[in-house]
Structure formats: C-alpha cells, structure tokens
C-alpha cells in the first residue's frame, strides 16, 4: 500500500514538474510511456517562473496611519485592564500598610523593652 502511494505521489510530482506533461495531463492525452520517459523535475523552479522584483512606488497623497493596536486593545480589554490596575494599586497599599504596622510593632516592642529595662535597673 505504501509503495503504491509512493508511486502515485512520484508520478504526480513528475507531471506537475513539467509544463508540457501538465498540459497533456489536463487535456487527457498523457500516456504511460510519456510519463515513464519523462525526466525527473529538478528541485528548483525555473528561473523565468519567478517575477522580477518591483521597485517600491510612492503613493500620491497622505499615507494612512498604521493600525492602532493600543486603541484596539483598550476597546476590547479596557475594563479588564482597569480592574487589574485597581487590584495592583490595592495590593500595593495593603503591602505598605503591613510594612508600616510591622515597623510600628517593632518600635513598640523596643520601647516596651526599654521601659522594662529602666524599671529593672532603676
């Protein structure tokens, strides 16, 4: 089954690689002898097949601005972006409050120890 499939693909490759064989195949005139005797096509397309490169041409009038992806993104995901920014700001405020509370707690412990030490020594 694999050998037959490979043979069919090879035959199609040979026909499609030759303009003359392709024309005969399209007209239904391609014989098995012609196909067997046909040379294998090279891996490269013929040089004449590729169009020559064109020089860029300037457009008359104003050039339209490129697509504004930022506006598109804001239009489709604006609410989600606002929620994320709000959550980020709240998390930052909470972090700052915790840091302040921790600093005040350390200061209070230090002052309590100092007062206790003064009573003990005094």
From TrEMBL:
Location of region: Disordered: 32-66
Source organism, top-level taxon: Eukaryota
InterPro entries: Mito_ATP_Synthase-Asso (IPR053025)
Biased segments, Pro residues type: 42-66
Name under which the protein is recorded: DJC30 protein
Species this chain originates from: Rhabdornis inornatus
């Amino acid at each position: 089954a694999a050998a037959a499939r490979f043979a069919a693909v090879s035959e199609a490759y040979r026909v499609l690689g030759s303009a003359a064989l392709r024309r005969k195949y399209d007209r239904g005139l391609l014989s098995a002898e012609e196909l067997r005797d046909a040379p294998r096509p090279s891996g490269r397309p013929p040089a004449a097949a590729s169009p020559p490169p064109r020089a860029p041409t300037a457009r008359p009038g104003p050039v339209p601005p490129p697509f504004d992806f930022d506006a598109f993104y804001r239009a489709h995901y604006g609410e989600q972006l606002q929620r994320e920014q709000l959550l980020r700001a709240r998390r930052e405020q909470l972090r700052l409050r915790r840091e302040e509370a921790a600093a005040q707690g350390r200061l209070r412990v230090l002052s309590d120890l100092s007062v206790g030490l003064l009573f003990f020594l005094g």
